[in-house]
Amino acid sequence: MIKVENLSKKYPDKNALDDISVTFPAEETTAIVGPSGSGKSTLLHSLNLLERPTSGRLIVDELDLNLDKTLTKAQVLDVRKHFGMVFQEKALFTHLTVLKNLTEGPTKVKKISQDQALEKAHALLKQFNMEELANRYPYQLSGGQQQRVAILRALAMEPQYLLLDEPTSALDPELEAQVLRVLRELAQKETSMIIVTHNMAFAQQVADKIVFIDNGHVGYDGKTEDFFNSNDPRIKQFLGAMTF
Question: Residues of the signal sequence (predicted)?
Answer without folding.
Answer: none
